[in-house]
Amino acid sequence: LPWVLARGEGEAAERIVRLARDALRPTLANAGLAQALYESTPEKGTIQQQHFREVAQLLKWATGAA
């Protein structure tokens, strides 16, 4: 199951994105999904089923399978 590695708000969220970019990981802004995951999923917690479809689409995009 997909899970949340790290989460944060404001400067913490900006740092997470900066670290991902520095590690050459793909990033994509999706404020609605980010907020929903932040509210429903603890750090290192699995993503709830209601978010599977949207997260799967992002994973396909990130891996170049889309």
UniProtKB/TrEMBL annotation:
GO terms for cellular component: membrane. GO terms for biological process: protein secretion. InterPro entries: T3SS_substrate_exporter, T3SS_substrate_exporter_C. SUPFAM superfamilies: EscU C-terminal domain-like. Belongs to the type III secretion exporter family. This is EscU/YscU/HrcU family type III secretion system export apparatus switch protein. It comes from Burkholderia territorii.
